[in-house]
Design a protein that fits this description.
The strands form three sheets. Strands 1-2-3-4-5-6-7 form a seven-stranded mixed β-sheet, with helices on one face. A six-stranded mixed β-sheet has the order 8-9-10-11-14-15. The longest helix has 16 residues, at 163-178. It is built from five helices and 15 strands. It has a single domain (2-210), classed as Ribonuclease Z/Hydroxyacylglutathione hydrolase-like (Metallo-beta-lactamase, Chain A), CATH 3.60.15. Helices cover 22% and strands 33% of the residues. It is α/β, with parallel strands linked by helices and 212 residues long.
């Protein structure tokens, strides 16, 4: 759990693939955004119940954002939408591959305003055509970046040994993340443990050289 001045960030690891589900809750209003309803509805229900304690106001999931269309990130999406009644969002180019209807198409630079916080969409093309990262700009400390499967500790996401896709992803990650955001930015990936941009920055040339 990350306790910030205006929001809390909680996460749960689900499935045999160690998928991360993230929940952002506005402390003043109870407004919530869930990122990647990957699997395991009971675990997501538990996460929502815990997040409901982070605000004195009634908790309400305003949106479920899917970082990309791969099957392991959407297995509980339909059930979670039914449970919460929340709107859905995903990167424009990935929407056709997501079976659950998507209400909001996200493009690079879009700012989603919620009651108590905002998330900026950063398109990172390569792992999938419409992969998005979501940036929370923290006025009182380091910002928080939810990168899906586009950036992990130790490298970028899998591009299926496709040099064109790899070049697209590493270029976007370098220009749209590392050239855009400071080193103290916290990175919350789609699987496994988090990192910071500063911890990963020295390895960019190495990643580009190895091609994955």
């Amino acid at each position: 759990m990350w306790e910030l001045d205006d929001i809390t960030i909680r996460s749960a690891s689900v499935s045999e693939m160690d998928n991360n589900v993230y929940l952002i809750t506005a402390k003043d209003t109870g407004t919530q955004v869930l990122i990647d309803a990957a699997d395991d509805l009971p675990a997501i229900e538990k996460l929502l119940a815990e997040g409901a304690q982070d605000s004195p106001a009634p908790a309400k999931v305003a949106m479920i954002i899917t970082t990309h269309s791969h099957w392991d990130h959407v297995r509980a999406l339909a059930e979670t939408v039914k449970l919460t009644g929340a709107r859905t969002a995903a990167g424009t180019e990935d929407i056709a591959q997501i079976e659950v209807p998507t209400a909001v198409a996200l493009d690079h630079g879009d700012i989603a305003e919620f009651d108590g916080f905002a998330l900026e969409t950063i398109k990172l093309r390569g792992h999938t055509p419409g992969s998005v990262a979501l940036l929370y700009r923290n006025a009182h400390g380091p910002s928080h970046l939810f990168t899906g499967d586009s950036l992990f500790p130790g490298g970028v996401g899998n591009t299926q040994q496709d040099p064109q896709r790899f070049a697209s992803l590493i270029d976007d990650v370098e220009r749209r993340l590392f050239d855009y955001l400071p080193d103290d930015t916290a990175v919350h990936p789609g699987h496994g443990k988090g990192t910071t941009l500063g911890a990963e920055r020295p390895h960019l040339a190495e990643w580009r050289e190895r091609g994955w």
